[in-house]
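Hey, resending since the last one bounced:
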Amino acid sequence: MSDADMGGFSKVALDQIPATATEPAHMRFHGSISIDLPPNRPQIQRTGYAAWRNKDRGPTIFGKSLWDVDPYLYLALRVKSDGRKYFVNVQTESIEYTDIHQHRLYAQRPGEWETLLINWSDFVRTNYGQVVEPQNEMMTQKVRTLGIGLTDRVPGPFDLCISSMWATNQVEDGDTHRRER
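The structure tokens again:
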């Protein structure tokens, strides 16, 4: 998804890249951000974003299919970043259906694979891009979707590779970066 859904001009793609001798299999989130406004839509005041998220999981005979990550301290991501300011987005069965819990993806080695850990309790509840109060604890027992967005409104190309995302209690080896508040 991008601002193109409402008339903007950003381009976005999410490609599955097979493993090679030098690269793991991964998803490539890439495209180009444009902050140009659509000339025929004066109600559109801001553009310049792109994002993706997984689809809602299908229902089971027991009801909604959600992830329970409550037993885990961290969300871990294995990424290769271009250094832009991405956000990790987590949608839960929250107070408001449109709430998204966000945390900045702090990649420290652009152009290199690295593992990043984000404490589940460090995510901030937002709605339509704005921080909302009260900042209730995220319902980690009822996670609906995970995704990544780019909302820095800096025109130009972007490229983020993600080889894996998982919930964990383990702090990994030397290429792991843990971000605390």
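The two ends are 29 Å apart (CA to CA).

Sorry for the duplicate.
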